[in-house]
Amino acid sequence: MGTFLENLAPFALLLILLGGLAIGFQREALRHHRARTADRQASSFVWRA
């Protein structure tokens, strides 16, 4: 059983790493999207004024 876990460990580590990258990428994309919508709202506000 120990060898099975030892063989599984690198795959688990890789999965965790990929998951962290995916979460970080999504968070970054969401931040950019929020910034873009905020810019659009600000420009439309200026356009009206």
From TrEMBL:
Protein name: Uncharacterized protein
